[in-house]
Amino acid sequence: MKRPTQKDVAQRAGVSRSTVSYVLNDQNDLKIPISDETRQRVMQAMTDLGYEPDARAQSLRRGDTNIVGVIIPVIQNPFFWQIISGISEGLQENGYSLHLTHHPLDLQQEANTIRELTHQPVDGFILLAAAKYLLPRLTDYLRKSGRPIVEITGSKAEFDHVLHSYSSGTRALMAHLLELGHKRIGFIYGITNEVQGFDRLIIYREVMQEAGLSDMHSLETHCEETMEDAYRAAYALLSNKNRPTALLVINDMLAIAVMRAASDLGLVIPHDLSVASFDDIPFSNYTLPRLTTVSGKSEESGREAVRLLLNRFAEPDLPPQVVSAGVQLIIRESTGPVAI
């Protein structure tokens, strides 16, 4: 069945198409001199025909779109999709929709990402990583766009931001492993940009030094962000004669690959090796054994980012907004006492 148009409404109400447009765009302000009787005829005709205004066209005329651009750095990690779930729910509850853009940290893709963003009429942006991780021209484009920006980041940022730091969670996790008697605690640091996980790496090093465990650098393994990279890194580290008795892993997704590497080497978790990580993605509760992890309460962070963005829409001159996301250590079956 053909969707009714403004022309159909005008014919049924016995008015011009421009009158229908005036009524639609002036329903609240009543600045255009149209009689109440004419307005009522137009509204009744819309009801009779089941006419629904094109919300996108109306918003463009008002200068807004009710669309928020969300920029995601890694599409493989379920943690980011949990944040997006929180953002999506928060936006939908407030009448906004979401446009998703992936920003690979790749100079060859930078121009394509900027081109895509310039073609999207969005009211503001939410970044799922600090702007300093982005490529230079992309960062500059966002800064000059004139649209509100909120970051979800592990460090301070120039825009409104949700501070999503694992510093306190890393300290709690290290305390847990030390209490279990572990002294050779390794770290699988799988990232694309060196600063992405500094909130974890710095605390790991601090706690190892505080505990008098000075050989930590030999237990750190830096690799790329894929599961295969983490598998290979863990396999090499765990093949050493003086292998770690416990491993921190930068995120749960890579921890799953690390657990597989340990199993392929004949190590039993947690008897021979304790494994712990960060994010608390849904899979972490279904690994064998279940994974000890630090939850970043990702969906809550997404909702908080939406709240900050809506605040900025409503009051553009607000002072900088910063909120801190909560973290929680969740002890499961993948960590246990060091074998004697």
Kindly, what is the distance between the CA atoms of the first and last residues, rounded to a whole number of angstroms? Answer: 76 Å
What structural class do helix, strand and pairing data support?
Answer: alpha/beta
Overall radius of gyration: 26 Å
Helical run tally: 12
Give the integer mean of the pLDDT values.
85
**Annotation, overall tally of beta strands:** 12
In sequence order, what are the helices and strands, one letter per element?
HHHHEHEHEHEEHEHEHEHEEHEE
CATH architecture of the largest domain: 3-Layer(aba) Sandwich
Name of the CATH first level of the largest domain: Alpha Beta
| Biggest pleated sheet | 6 strands, parallel
Helix content: 40-55%
Global shape:
elongated
Q: Spans of 5+ residues with little confidence (pLDDT < 50)? A: none
Write out the strand line-up for the largest beta sheet, numbering strands in chain order. 2-1-3-4-5-11
CATH superfamily of the largest domain: Response regulator
How many domains, as an integer? 3
**CATH topology type of the largest domain:** Rossmann fold
Fraction of residues in β-strands: 15-25%
Descriptive account of the structure:
The protein has about 350 residues and is of the alpha/beta class. It folds into three domains: about 50 residues, lambda repressor-like DNA-binding domains (434 Repressor (Amino-terminal Domain)), CATH 1.10.260; about 130 residues, 3-Layer(aba) Sandwich (Rossmann fold); about 130 residues, Response regulator (Rossmann fold, 3-Layer(aba) Sandwich). The protein has twelve helices and twelve strands. The strands form two sheets. The chain has a six-stranded parallel beta sheet with strand order 2-1-3-4-5-11, sandwiched between helices. α5 packs across α12 and α10 packs across α11. The radius of gyration is 26 Å and the shape is elongated. It starts with 5 loop residues before the first helix and ends in a 10-residue tail after the last strand. The model has no long low-confidence stretch (mean pLDDT about 85).
